[in-house]
Amino acid sequence: MSLVSPVYFKNAAARITESPEGFAVVKWHKGVRKPEDFRAVLRHLDRLFRLRQ
Predict the structure, then answer these.
(1) How far apart are CA 10 and CA 19, in angstroms?
(2) Residue 1 in domain
């Protein structure tokens, strides 16, 4: 079994992966975030949660 989680989404603000246990893991990048990058992270988190219901 691979311990590396596949990247679900990545942009300048953050990277979203899924843990083997099914959790969403968000790694925020340092620096100033553009509002559209932040919104994109939230949009993709919402999509991931809805897919896993």
Answers:
(1) 15
(2) no
